[in-house]
Amino acid sequence: MRSNKKFLIELPLKIALTEDGASNFISHNKKLMRFKLADNVEEYGIALNKFSPQSIQNMILLDYISKIEISMPEFVTSRQDVMDLCKVIVFSILYKQFDREVYSGLIQCECVKKHNRANPAHIIDERTTMSDRQLRSTLQTKENTIQSARKMILDPIWKSIMCNKEYSDEEKNIYILMSEKFLNRLGLMNWYIITLFTKSDGANEMYEVIRKLLSLYMEKSVAAEYISILTMELALGCENTNIRKEAKNMYHGVDDIEALILDPTVRGKIVEELQRKHELVFLSWKLGGGSSSIGKQGRLSITLYNKDDEFQEVKENIETAKNSNTNKKTLIDFYRELPEGADASGLGNFYFNYLEDACKKVNIKFESLVNQFSASDLTVINLNFNF
Q1: What pLDDT is recorded for position 38?
Q2: Buried b (16+ CB within 10 A) or exposed e, 171-184
Q3: CA distances, 174 to each of 162, 167, 213 (Å)
Q4: For the whole model, what pTM was predicted?
């Protein structure tokens, strides 16, 4: 991932915090902001203009973030940064899901069940909780055991990658690095179980459970690239719609609007005007939920709001009359129904099909909806994923 190599990303982020996140910031004497996001919901959180990808990932892994939003008049100059942020978010959710599934798999292993039968007062199951401090203290003396277990888990996977003739040398390196990253983000509780039973007869069963999940999640990670590209294409589509609309307002009587907006100087002036009028494209990522949100942890909703001056008022009116003036359809239907000759650049059809196929192959649930509010020309695009 390029984003992990890059020290800072520059984007205007609003980050809505979970209860755990807010508590942590307050306990460190950090003042929280109160802001309204594009969905008209008031949230407490923080605003950032520069941030390291790793800091965002760490906050997601700790269940500190519920929503991330950016709003800009144009995305094209921040294209790579937006895609990097999107990939960081998707990978963070995959790391969390991998950790959860490994835990679920380990407590079903025979060695753990045998331990539970012999130690009814110290059962290890889905309700077991140990503090991070306690776990770190226990694992501190087990570094050699951890490294040995890592080698046992990764060696067969690396061998399989290196022997795969369909991979290029670059792809082999990427997959080897990725396997390490997933294992590096395995939680303390999982390492506690691994070190507890690594010398037992059931160690191989544990390693096999982890290897299977590691292979599965490495396959799932392919979707991150497609999700980031599609998100960017949709944002560019919204941006171009706004620029065209404003160009017609600013340059009355010009026949060739398309040629006009290709001029960098003119485009710059239009973008400035959009910024002045606060006619922005809003892009948000809503994360499924923390450890208490059972069944929702692996969810991600990406939403694009193309917002105009009357957005808040229109949004409230729409909420009361949703059934009468909202036309919900899938994103692909929306694209198919574009009038002939309508500009489809930036709509991401090509990537959309790839994303649908990629998600199906690795059992990621994906649905898309476009809410069209004809009275206001407001379009809200939703991409929903369950990893």
Answers
A1: 86
A2: eeebbeebbebbbe
A3: 11, 10, 18
A4: 0.87
Q: Which of 14, 107, 10, 24 is nearest to 58 (CA)?
A: 24
CA distance 210 to 153: 7
Please name the residue that has the structure tokens 């969905």.
Answer: 39
CA dist., res. 187 & res. 98, Å (int):
10
Task: Tell the residue number behind the tokens 């390291």, with chain if given.
Answer: 52
Give me the helices (H) in the chain, please: 2-5, 19-27, 53-61, 79-106, 110-118, 132-139, 143-163, 169-184, 188-197, 203-220, 222-250, 257-262, 264-277, 311-320, 322-325, 331-336, 349-361
Task: Supply 84's token pair.
Answer: 């990097």
Q: Which amino acid is at 339?
A: P
- In tens, the pLDDT along 123-147 reads 999 999 999 999 999 999 999 999 9
Q: What is the DSSP letter of 167?
A: S
C-alpha 328/C-alpha 89 separation (Å) is: 27
pLDDT of residue 335: 57
Distance CA 198, CA 252 (A): 74
CA distance 7 to 2: 10
The vertex-268 CA angle with 267 and 273, nearest 5°, equals: 95
Report the alpha-carbon distance of residue 124 to residue 116 in Å, rounded: 7
Can you tell me which residue has the tokens 């400035």?
272
CA distance 383 to 225: 15
How many angstroms separate the CA atoms of 32 and 47, rounded? Answer: 9
Determine the residue type at 16.
Answer: A
Identify whether the C-beta of residue 157 lies closer than 8 Å to the C-beta of residue 179.
yes
Contacts 24+ apart (CB under 8 A), 164-168: none
* C-alpha Rg value of the chain to the nearest Å: 24
What distance, in Å, lies between the first and last C-alpha atoms of the chain?
A: 19
* 113/125 Cα distance (integer angstroms): 9
CB contact at 8 A, 257 and 244: yes
Task: Please say whether the beta carbons of 213 and 96 come within 8 A.
Answer: no
**352-368 pLDDT per residue, tens:** 777 888 899 999 999 88
